[in-house]
Amino acid sequence: MEVKDINGFPHVKYDRETYEEDEALRRSSEFYEWMDKRRTVRDISDKHFPIEIIENILLTASSAPSGAHKQPWTFCVVSNDEIKSKIREAAEKEEYDSYHRRMSERWLKDLEPIGTDWHKPFITTAPYIIIVFKKVYETTEGEKANNYYVNESVGIACGFLLAAIHNAGLVTVTHTPSPMNFLSKILDRPANERPYLLLPVGYPEQDVFVPKLDRKGIDEIMKVY
Question: Which helix (H) or strand (E) holds 56?
Answer without folding.
Answer: helix 51-61
